[in-house]
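Hi there. Long-time user, first ticket. I'm pasting a complex I've been working with (about 1097 residues overall). I'd like to know whether the download I got is complete or cut off, because the file seemed smaller than I expected. Thanks.
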Amino acid sequence: MVNTATVDLAPLDEILKEFNGEKGAVIPILQRVQDAYGYLPKEVLSAISKRTGIPLSRLYGVATFYAQFHLTRRGCHLIKICDGTACHVRGATKLVKSLEEALQLSPGGSDPDYKYSLEIVYCLGSCGLAPIVVVDDQVYGQTNPESLIERLEKLE
Amino acid sequence: MSTTSEIRLMIDGKAVLAKPGETVLQAARRAGIAIPVLCEHPALPPSGACRICLVEIENLRALQPACTFLVSEGLVIQTQSPRVRSARKFTLEMLLSDHPLECMTCEAAGECSLQDLAYEYGVTGNRFRGKQHHYPIDTSNPFIIVDRNKCILCGLCVRACQHINGVEAISVFHRGFNAYIGFGADGGMQDSLCEFCGSCVAVCPTAALWPKMSIGQGRPWQVKKVDTICSYCGVGCKITLHVKDNRIIRVEGAWDGPANHGWTCVKGHFGYDYVHHPDRLTKPRVRRYLLEGQAKTRQGSAWEWVETDWETALNIVARRLAEVWSQSGPDSIGILASAKCLNEENYLMNKLARQVIGTNNIDHCARLCHSSTVAGLAISFGSGAMSNSIDDVTEQAQAFFVIGSNTTEQHPVIGMRLRQAVRQRGARLIVADPRRIDLCDFAEIHLQHKAGTDIALLNGLMYIILEKGWEDKEFIATRTEGFEDFKAAVMHYSPEKVSAITGVPMEQLYQAAEIMAASKPMAALWAMGITQHVTGVQNVMALANLQMLLGNMGKPGGGANPLRGQNNVQGACDMGGLPNVYPAYQPVTSEEARIKFARAWGLDERPIGDENRRGLSPRAGMTVTEMIPSILENKIRALCILGENPIMSDADTNHVRRCLESADFLVLLEIFPSETSLYVDVLLPGVSFAEKSGTFTNTERRVQLVHKAIEPPGEARPDWWIITEIARRLIPLLAQHGRAIDLDAPWAKWDYTDTAQILNEINALAPSYAGITRQRLERGETLQWPCPSPDHPGTPILHVQKFTRGLGKFVPVDYLPPAELPDDDYPLIMSTGRVLYHWHGGEMSRRSQGLLAIYPEPRIEISQEDAEKIGLNGSKRLRVSSRRGAIEAEAMVTDRVPPGMVYANFHFPQASANVLTSGAALDPISKIPEFKVCAVKIEKA
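Hi, the file is complete. Here it is re-exported in full:
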């Protein structure tokens, strides 16, 4: 039984309408749902399964296979700090530490207000700009703790 | 088809011929060359995951997996070269680096593919030392232990769940080193869609998935394996019992089972332990009054059970039956045969009734399930059985019309195969059912018609087919009769009218009719949803009309396919366990048949009568639904019941109780003290399916051997022995009253020492079983009747060139509403049925630990709307009453039932649906009660 009381399924219905029973749409559906909900709540996965006939275990398998999908609630803004060789040498660790101190934000988690989530990534392919931070779709190159926190605090 | 060119290749220096499209593994296997595998199973698509079947192919740089590499002309392959063996060894060393080395206590030791390979390749498991997983062992469900530490991620369970069961409860979660198998959204198996069929266990190469009840029970090399047939439903799955110290410790599907091909359902796989339940009857019991020579009383110590010896009990039975016979005549005795027992035992019950006693009052619970089918199809086609075979229906039908069959719960292995057909080869599925059953998830369209409006629905579909000119004109012209009258009747069922009666939207009617016309052959499958109505026979004839109209009869993938309920209900009917026919449906009213049996059984050829007590009865006897009520009119005074439980299975339980209380003498052959045994005078301990040998006939008319695997408990005896002993005692007593049997007649004697002798007699007297001999069955043949001679191959499909009756008969049928419709006092419809985890009256499944754990109590399905109306929020107990009684049980609030309907099962005596059903509303021809519709009211309990 799907407990529909806790999660609003209206956005899901809108998304599923767009796909309209299309085959092989598991990943695009999950991406759109994650955009709408910020992550993939289990109740929503169950509802996708019930409404599309895609077995829940298959959805869960896909959702846990790809790093892009998240099963727990995420902050509004996703911060990716690169800790590849170049960025590591140029102070990525300091950036991570500063976020922990200033925002109570640790790798793989979110801050208490769910404003930010932090992920560590390994090489974004722009080592000339090290250390690199990507916030949502915005790239910040050659950054330092002070400017990073200042920028983050300006975000809505 | 053009001749398939063969492909020549060399494997290990041996010339091998392969078929195009085969894999190297398949070609090698056929040539008897063993290539080791871990992730491959012949019934499942290959995945190439385990890298154990790598082989060396000349002119290819890399080693190739034999399970996915397709053959081509001239390949030269090495399966055991040093390079290949070294690669396999490396893979095994990697696998064992994260695998517990606890073979000495592991359940799979002795049949573990990984262990066997490690042994062969000398892998000890200590070459690589790295990170290891330590997953907790999941024992949270009653059937299957999940030990992920032993999982090698071969993916076989995932593929089995997807390709065999079809629900896809299992998947691989996460990735890389952290990947593991999981269920649903990573809960327990019981939280997912898992139906516990055990297909995953069957293919698991290690003990990652293992039957919980088998833990610590014995090693593979300590068991005796006995092939037999499952004792639950009519699919007739062949299973292998693993026996140690006279106990069944595990059950597996048998890969050569013609109905199941190795797969099982939860009941067949894990529901066997009832056989060893402490409730088993081990000594004959009689009421004290019988031992003390008193008159019958159901009061006080005189009614207490006394355990006694067989001689005493059998003598009492014979004496009491003879007394009733001499006082009130043969027709005052009724015989209930059993759809759970062997063909041979049912034949003997038929012989006991007809030869020894001289009555046709013999019937069994087929009356309550498919009597409408038997009668309806006999009228339409001349033969009342499933026309096609499970294999051709599930593998060749382009479309399925499933009406009134909750196939995935009641005939689970057929249900699984329907899902496979839909998912894997795109067969189209139309489900017609008042409830939203699980199979609807796989259907293209669900016609949710109101309960009891089947004829209107079917006629409406046929109206559209005729209106559009989609009927098979040639088939109708050459193979059928009565078309014009039928057509005239159907033309009263316009889609508008049908939509109003059934509640099915018009566009869905058109859509369904279009699928039927476009996708041929279409197989029609049905069960109790069609038969258990006052119009049951007419419902069946409407389906026969539909299949003739579409020209779907006599073809693989088509046919009229009633799914029979009990494991041997088909056989019990075939053996003459019916009041109107001798074995093989020879009518008791036919003089020719009567004389045939009189000669065979040593009786007078003239019918029985006042002046001739030595004849057979020329009149059809009473049905079970007539016999039990007529106890109150003193027409029936004694019943001899074989393994049936009318208190649970018959309609209107309270009335059945009153009837049984009034009987002069009841004898019951059972394996447990049942709800019915409270009312009987003598209770004789019979044996379970695992304790006797003989034959069962499954739903597709296939006769299969049942083998004794264990000794019965205590003094329990096979039912055929008990019936024989009763007959041997009764014959001389009745001879004193003028019914002398000439024991020199060819089949008159009762001197059986095994069931093979009884089958021999059946071969001689039942023409459709004439060629189904014990010798052929022992050779491994599983024959489908009719099989009229020892060289006949059996008949997989009926009505191929012509119908059994010649031309198929279109019979016009008209919609009649159910007998008891909702009104102000009883505003809802109740329908009844079964659930996946239980069986019939529950005598067996309630005594199976796992089945009871997963479904421990009765539940009544009710819609959200109706639940809200009676304020069923916190309190989940529901009281349902009809004019005949009331039950209380847990409510299951669900969208499976529409508003205005509740659905209850009859598995649990504390709240059996049959307390509410009506035994008075009977189909006029088949006398089946209308189990599927009665009016009820509901309130919060």
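A couple of notes from our side: The mean pLDDT of chain B is 95. Chain B is about 30% helix and 15% strand.
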